[in-house]
Amino acid sequence: MKRRGRESTPHVGIYGRRNYGKSSLINALAGQDIAIVSDHPGTTTDPVKKSFEIVDFGPVILIDTAGIDDSGDLGKKRVERTLKSVDHIDMALIVITGNQWGEWEEKLAERFGEEELPYLIVHTKSDIEKPDPAFALAIREKTGHRLIPFSATTRENIDLLIDEIKKAIPERSMAFPSLFGDIIRPDDIVLLITPVDAEAPAGRMILPQMQAVRDVLDNKAVAIVMTEFRIKEFLEKTGIRPALVVTDSQAFAKVSAQIPDDLPLTGFSVVLARQKGDFRNYLKGTPKISELKDGDRVLILESCTHQIACDDIGRVKIPGWLQKFTGRKIEFDIVAGLASLPRPVTEYAMVIQCGGCMITHRQILARLRSAVEADIPVTNYGMAIAWMHGIYDRAIAPFRERG
Length: 403
Prior knowledge:
By secondary structure, the chain is an alpha/beta fold. The protein is built from 14 helices and 16 strands.
């Protein structure tokens, strides 16, 4: 039986023109002044996250954005940031007022429709000017969405709006899928191999390892955690036969040599790739590593920023392994966080995404979308490392038939 993962927090983006009441709407929803409100257009500059609790539902993150009609060189940059935020949300509100619907709103609705992103249309300042019935009907016919009249001043329809938000938020945004829920059973033993090396944070474990431990426990199974040393001796001494062995990608080769062939073995990065990455395209793209040629350029995407170590996995080890495995002279670009790419994605022969433990499934898909659409092979750290170390088939075997 497939089990739900741990809870997540849905992100709701608020979009509209300047001075249309986006910040007032957020304050009304949250029941407090958490967004600056002004009669001067353009008060909100960059997207800002605001958290509030919906009764009988849970926490929600509201993203207050700059006006989509901002002007000037600085305004254009604000609009770019506003539109980029669409990649990080689970649903949206299009805010209009004064019975106005034009090119700006049309583009938003088209974008949301293309990405199958649920959205609502809210007519704010309805205490000043109510939606015209003919206008509301035209919006319904154009978009398929009803128009919700709303006033931050009188709080008209605030309960209705909250109910509609609750209905529109996709269920998938409310929980992370379980890492192991469909491949282990209660009381199964899962052996987690966690190297303690220069990249391991002092006194702590890295996030994917902690997520794995928690997921095993959530599935009422037993987690045994150890380093990559003396695994074979441990198994022989205890007689334990784990239902699954999971290791850090960098230790694939060392661990694989110590685990009997009939025991399922995979990696933390492979597990994350399946949970929140573009696993289907990773499966297609990873074998393309063997087809890289001299002069090819590879893009490595790190989804978080961190202090760079001398043996950094993304900046040092993977480039080194790729050069050695292929025997080719390859160029590399490394991009951290959600920064812009230094060159068009079509100039890359392959894109290698990190595990993505710090970002959402939707953010990873958005990050890789341009490469996938351009038919550029994509993979992730763990699957690439498994391929280069000759144990790719074994690492993906526990998940191949389950998708």
